[in-house]
Write a structure and sequence with these properties.
Oligomer: single chain
Strand content: 25-35%
Structural class: alpha+beta
Largest sheet: 6 strands, mixed
Order of helices and strands: EEEHEHEE
Number of strands: 6
Shape: globular
Number of helices: 2
Length: 118
């Protein structure tokens, strides 16, 4: 039976859940919503890196990513930041959709990654 490990679970929902060789991150948003969509995307990706590291993974191990944009017209700006961040030899499957986001958030990103078994 796989052990389930929850990271930062005092929040709702857990920020990350590890089960077996998989890491599931909750949707991440920027803390500083005064930034434009590129700045918010950089913040979110840094947050994702931190949670992946804590879970025993990294961006080379990404399997999939879902990105929600307040304005789908910002697709290129987000993709530019994404392409600078992602490991080019290990791109995950990715979907980007427009969505109504709240409290000034312009982008939300959720990822699933593999990790080395502990």
């Amino acid at each position: 039976m796989n052990t389930i490990r929850r990271i930062d679970s005092n929040a709702w929902p857990s920020r990350a859940v590890c089960c077996g060789d998989l890491v599931f991150l909750a949707g991440m948003t920027a803390d500083d919503v005064s930034q434009d969509v590129a700045g918010q995307t950089e913040q979110v990706l840094a947050k994702i890196e931190g949670y992946l590291r804590e879970a025993g993974s990294d961006k080379r191990m990404l399997l999939s990513a879902q990105i929600w944009l307040h304005d789908i017209g910002a697709w290129q700006a987000v993709t530019d930041v994404w392409c600078r961040w992602i490991d080019p030899g290990h791109p995950p499957a990715r979907a980007v959709v427009g969505a109504t986001l709240d409290r000034g958030h312009l982008v939300e990103i959720m990822v699933t990654a593999a990790r080395s078994p502990s």
